[in-house]
Amino acid sequence: MSRNDVIVRFDEVTFEHGVNKPILDQVSFSLRRGSKITIMGQNGAGKSTLFALITGALEPEDGQIHIEKGCTIALSRQVIPRNEMDLTVREFFERSFKEKVYDIDPKIDDVLEVVNLKGHEKLHDRIVKTFSGGQQARLLLASALIQEPDLLLLDEPTNNLDRAGIAHLTEFLINYKKTIVVISHDAEFLNAFSDGVLYLDIYTRKIEQYVGNYNNVLRDISARVEKENMKNAQLAKEIQAKKDKSNEFAHKGGRLRLVAKRMKELAADLEEEMVDVRKEDKTIRSFHIPCQEDLSGALMTIKGLTVYKNHKPTHRKVNISLKKNQHLLLEGPNGIGKSTLLQTLAHNESPDAKTVEGIRVGYYRQDFSTLDFNDTVYESLAKSMLAAGVKVNDERLRSVAASFLITGSLIMSKIGVLSEGQKGLVAFAGLVLLAPGILILDEPTNHINFRHIPVIAEALNKYAGAMILVSHVPEFVAKIRIDETLSLG
């Protein structure tokens, strides 16, 4: 079969999530065999919805989706569902197949090798929830790869992966001979293998198809926007000049009124020539996370911690005293125990660490489990205000929410129906309203649109309380003041 064969084609597809939540409006595009495509778009634009339409999990309201006969599709999801956390690794992989696969263990071994997760022990009987966030990300990827699909759909595959994991995945995708479609906000990762981009515009609800990698497309879009803005600026000058002439002649009466009418018509013609400039993704506004007042001395002391090597716990002595305005970075590979340590610190559950009584701790978890998915966004943010010891102020709450692009009906939506990126923005809005004394952040750039990341970095850099950060994104960490780094590896 030719590499130019179309294996997926959307013909004027329209889709809505519930009432008055349009996602796609008469969208048409095609995917060719062997292509490696990136999907771009703002948080909440519908990128994951696009995958659900391709897999058949969702049906379009109108239009048609054509999938090549016999084409097999596998989706690597963003997160492992909570109802799968108690499965063994073997049971988890068995769910990747519609029919029972006999002698699946060798296949599991092979695919764990591909995602760089094969250790010194057999993992088949290990429970999924005992793996770290980064290791779970590898399991999700492996669950798609084990199916050896014709079309591989990857939804934020680099989230929680350390640098070694991202390098391993990148090499695999470069060498993968079949079709790949990836949703990611990691520009360096995408540029390594992409040869085309589908851009989902949240405003027009259309998909623009581009040839080239992520950087090529950003340059193309910026150049087009600049050209369209220049054309509109020139037309605006001409329109205003003709309107001024029209007003001038209209007041002079007689035959000049006919000239005034003609000038008015010419101005209207020029207005029709003005192009609808492509709107760029909105970026969240600069924000400030207030620090709890009247803090002094050591807010948290850490005398020891547990790290995991080859899944075996090892206790280490440390001597860390976190004070106001001190930022600590935790480093280490996936599986070493970073997320587990952050959780015990956030809940003051470690026998080797102590948080001063009365200190509010703002905890950003990579799986957003600090949020109640049954709450509305409004209810969740109201809880943050109450936890800060202040009355719920509707105006203040809505203002903070709007700065994180949470406006209109979105504020009354359940947390559980939001995209992962939108959940992240809600979590940050909650931190602003909480005004914590200690900020604990576990991979805060996961799922977040690349345009928001510099704004988040600036806010964290200026945070005046104590902060503990885990991040595998060096470009993000480089923008934040770090006073001390603790390597767990």
What value does the Rg take, in angstroms? Answer: 26 Å
Our count of helices gives: 14
- Report the sheet-strand fraction: 15-25%
Category from helices, strands and their pairing: alpha/beta
Read across the widest sheet, the strand sequence of neighbours is 5-6-7-3-8-9
CATH level-two architecture of the largest domain = 3-Layer(aba) Sandwich
Could you list the spans in which at least 5 consecutive residues all have pLDDT below 50? none
Please provide the count of β strands.
17
CATH fold group of the largest domain: Rossmann fold
The total tally of domains equals 3
Question: Based on the structure, what is the oligomeric state of the protein chains?
Answer: single chain
> Could you state the CATH homologous superfamily of the largest domain?
P-loop containing nucleotide triphosphate hydrolases
Helix proportion? 25-40%
Shape: globular
Distance, first to last CA:
48 Å
CATH class categorisation of the largest domain: Alpha Beta
Overview of the structural elements:
This protein has 489 residues and is α/β, with parallel strands linked by helices. It folds into 3 domains: 6-214, Rossmann fold (3-Layer(aba) Sandwich); 218-273; 298-487, P-loop containing nucleotide triphosphate hydrolases (Rossmann fold, 3-Layer(aba) Sandwich), CATH 3.40.50. It has helices at 47-55, 89-94, 105-114, 133-145, 163-175, 187-191, 214-250, 256-273, 338-346, 377-387, 394-403, 420-434, 453-461, 474-477, and strands at 6-16, 22-32, 36-40, 62-67, 73-76, 151-155, 179-183, 196-200, 207-211, 298-309, 312-323, 327-331, 353-355, 361-364, 438-442, 466-470, 484-487.
